[in-house]
TrEMBL record:
Example GO biological process: phosphatidic acid biosynthetic process
Organism listed in the record: Xylanimonas allomyrinae
SUPFAM superfamilies attached to this UniProt entry: Glycerol-3-phosphate (1)-acyltransferase
The Phospholipid/glycerol acyltransferase domain, residue ranges: 21-139
UniProt-recorded name of the protein: 1-acyl-sn-glycerol-3-phosphate acyltransferase
Alphabetical keyword list: Acyltransferase, Transferase
GO MF annotation terms: 1-acylglycerol-3-phosphate O-acyltransferase activity
Transmembrane segments: none
GO CC annotation: plasma membrane
One Pfam family from the record: Acyltransferase
Length: 230
């Protein structure tokens, strides 16, 4: 990764000194899973990343994921809860569990974080471990969203920035219903977006892109049309 990325890292002091925690990052291209993992590892945290189960059965990548004890996720099935239970075990053992709260690569036309899934919120509220927001920008210049051709050379500028832990304490003792889970998810995504705004030097749209309202964006496209935001 050092051969293809010219990293600019900041905010590492926000990682906990001990104990398990959740690292939550934005997801704009397939390769940012590697830049995310590299960042965590070089800050002394061997990550357990939640990744879709299909990746675990692919040649080479699957063997790497299994060897590094990543956590498979069965998306949209009754077995999806198993991944959260596996993550709980890792957190109880003091591990760093890394999650993309959006659940998949963002479909936002401008690559801002979109509305997320509630799996991270369920895990965070059940375990009460710190949730650390991580923003990254620039990995798309190595491999664009849903791109098929790597652009490894010359080395690309990749910025990664960590913010302070997201405050969820007031939600711990509430019923973990959909409203509470959505509030926790929103706080995490807001924290990631704030750090990403600093990296990009831009302000994110006031309304976060919601894939549920734009089913035409579900297909994998390399170019996304503009979208009207409320």
């Amino acid at each position: 990764m050092f051969a293809v990325a010219r990293y600019e890292w900041s905010g590492g002091e926000n990682f906990p000194k001990s104990g398990g925690f959740i690292a939550a990052a934005n997801h704009a291209t397939e390769i940012d899973a590697l830049t995310f993992a590299h960042y965590l590892f070089d800050h002394g945290h061997e990550p357990r990343i939640l990744a879709k189960r299909g990746l675990f059965t692919t040649p080479v990548i699957g063997s790497i994921l299994r060897a590094t004890r990543m956590i498979p996720v069965d998306r949209g099935t009754a077995d999806a809860g198993r991944s959260l239970e596996a993550a709980r075990v890792e957190l109880a053992g003091g591990a760093c569990v890394a999650i993309f709260p959006e659940g998949t690569i963002t479909r936002d036309p401008d690559l801002w974080p979109m509305e997320g899934k509630t799996g991270l919120a369920r895990l965070a509220l059940a375990t009460r471990v710190p949730v650390i927001p991580v923003a990254q920008w620039g990995a798309g210049s190595i491999l664009p969203r849903y791109g098929r051709v790597l652009r490894p050379f010359p080395r690309k500028r990749v910025q990664i920035r960590t913010g302070p832990a997201v405050d969820l304490a007031d939600l711990y003792d509430r019923p973990h219903d959909s409203a509470t889970l959505r509030e926790a998810t929103t706080r995490v995504l807001d924290a990631i977006t704030a750090e990403l705004e600093t990296l990009r030097g831009e302000q994110a749209p006031a309304a976060r892109f919601d894939l549920r309202k734009h089913p035409e964006y579900r297909t994998k496209q390399t170019v996304y049309p503009p979208v009207e935001r409320p």
